[in-house]
Amino acid sequence: MTTETPSDPRPSLAALSAPLAGRLVADAAVLRLGLERVGGACVVDAGIRHPGGLEAGRRIAELCMGGLGRVTLGPVPGTPSWPFGVTVHSAQPVLACLGSQYAGWSLSHGSGKDAFFALGSGPGRALARQETLFDELAYRDTAETAAFVMEVAAVPPAELVARIAAACGIAADRLTLILTPTQSLAGTTQVVARVLEVALHKLHSLGFPLDRVVDGIGMAPLPPPGGGFLTAMGRTNDAILYGGTVHLHVAGPDGEAEDLARRLPSSASRDHGRPFAEVFAAVKGDFYAIDSMLFSPARVTVTAIDSGRSFHAGELAPDLVERSFRDVR
């Protein structure tokens, strides 16, 4: 497996994540996961007909980061009623978060009541390269296997499986698709584990040079799963928007690090201040009517590693986390 050029020192996401996918499948019974073949691909059910769990979600999150991230469950400060959460670290946050974990590939098949839609995330994206983001990252992976994570509650049709495999340049029986409904234990965990990725995505939207991001760590409280999709979507978003903390280490001038810290937190958005489910309802379910600057952690620290100075912005909103985690819609 190689990246775009022989001299590219960046690792292969496929090579690092393949053992994680293999162990996930091998431990399916222990992790309460379901396995089936669809169009030749191995489909892992992590919350549709099989319950999955927190450990499944933790391991899926590490796989989704292409093997370049470490995800742990444990105490997190700032939300007293919800003292446990997810901590995420990557020594290569740009490649792990934007090159793999980011849900950037729109996948659909059919129409009407039989339509299937999902956003594909995971290391397989770097094989398919269906997003212009990979040109910006100047990264290409090659492999004979691929893995994707989809935040859905339905099994993809065989026709879509075939298209995914073809885009990756592999046989369908070498493809692993992991399904994590938002309201499941595994789904909740793997979504909240995107706290660092959310920060990287906003940083990218703000135009900060990706090649100056050196390291990153983030954490967020783990909400209770269950309820309907709107409840689960609201809680997982609020865990990050109002309970998430991220610390980025960047190269470059102090002034630019300070400006990044100021603009990065969710409080910089006009839609900040209400639980996400309320914001979503107010725009009548039009996701694109929500200010995109809202999607970021509540509190950030940006350290300019050249000078050693750190800049802090934003603050946790435990009252909004509490309101969100107890509300059921």
List keywords for this structure.
12 helices; Methenyltetrahydromethanopterin Cyclohydrolase, Chain A, domain 1; 329 residues; 2 domains; single chain; Methenyltetrahydromethanopterin Cyclohydrolase, Chain A, domain 2; 12 strands
Describe this structure in words.
The protein is α+β, with helices and mostly antiparallel strands. The chain is about 35% helix and about 20% strand. It has 12 helices and 12 strands. The chain has helices at about 15-25, 55-65, 95-100, 125-130, 135, 160-170, 185-190, 195-205, 230-240, 255-265, 275-280, 320-325, and strands spanning about 35-40, 40-45, 70-75, 85-90, 105-110, 115-120, 145-150, 175-180, 215-220, 245-250, 300-305, 310-315. Helix 2 crosses helix 7 (about 185-190) and helix 9 runs antiparallel to helix 12. The longest helix is centred in the N-terminal third of the chain and has 14 residues, at about 15-25. The protein is globular. GO terms for molecular function: methenyltetrahydromethanopterin cyclohydrolase activity. Its EC number is 3.5.4.27. This is Methenyltetrahydromethanopterin cyclohydrolase.
